[in-house]
């Protein structure tokens, strides 16, 4: 027999991402639509442990669809990594009468939810919110599309300076494990080279490629570097290497950092967040638990948490080839 769910909690956990507010709004309004009470849980699992809950209705989430960050705040909770912490969190949920929760976050947040589900047989559902797009089971995570547009905009501006001064810029973008951001913004921003975690270009080939583009008449260059690029050098070390091996270049570095995470979510992220919230709540209502909501070929799909956490999100190899051709 299906357990009837009457109160659902929603939290944002791990790093913030544009579109989290739109997902909270969707969760709250879908609950209201189905006559289910909804509670916002502040500061991720930390707030769950402390019982920092607020009842939300359809009007509590007005005016947030266009806002970056998360109105519920986010946190990393070391206490939730311990059994004692999770027991406390469970007690707080029971005390408030919450009988399921939706966590909006990354794979760490899903691991926490999965363990919680195993320990207390508590219904949980995940919505992937992280700009890196590094989660298996969805072609897009919340915030990824917005981050792409933010970074391309920044690269366009850097290009203005690069071409005015005949400079070479190394632009570091987010992406410790996967090169989705670097690869896409590299193509969209007309980068001469793109360094990603999946492929080791090698320092010599990089210098050779820059020499070639200079010879072909290019007076400025942009090299996009993912944080976790496989050459294993920081952008500053790359600059030093090029400085030493190519005297004729004026090399600069730009680390985009946290600005990539901020800003108003794109139309795509707002729509995706709205769809994910509906799917998460309606899946919980029909008795499903321990899944992450994702999108594949424009269809909403569920991926079991253990697969979402263990699986690896892969870059599109065709994009590598497109990039090679574009930089001729
Ligand atoms: P991001 O992609 O932004 O890093 P994330 O969800 O992966 O997001 P984490 O800091 O890894 O971010 O995880 C968020 C929270 O999830 C942690 O602070 C912790 O409370 C909980 N968590 C992560 N891993 C575990 C685990 N193995 N056991 C219990 N809880 C966990």
Structure description:
Its cofactor is Mg(2+). Homotetramer. It is found in: Cytoplasm. Residues 7-283 form the Phosphofructokinase domain. The protein is of the alpha/beta class and 328 residues long. It folds into two domains: 7-143 and 265-310, Rossmann fold; 145-261, Phosphofructokinase domain (Rossmann fold, 3-Layer(aba) Sandwich). It has eleven helices and eleven strands. The chain has helices at residues 20-33, 44-50, 83-96, 107-120, 144-165, 180-188, 203-215, 235-245, 267-285, 305-310, 317-326, and strands at 7-12, 37-41, 53-56, 100-105, 124-128, 167-173, 193-195, 221-226, 250-255, 291-296, 299-304. The chain has a seven-stranded mixed beta sheet with strand order 3-2-1-4-5-10-11, with helices on both faces. A four-stranded parallel beta sheet has the order 7-8-6-9, sandwiched between helices. The mean pLDDT is 94. Adenosine-5'-triphosphate binds next to helix 4. The site of adenosine-5'-triphosphate (ATP) has 17 residues, from helix 4.
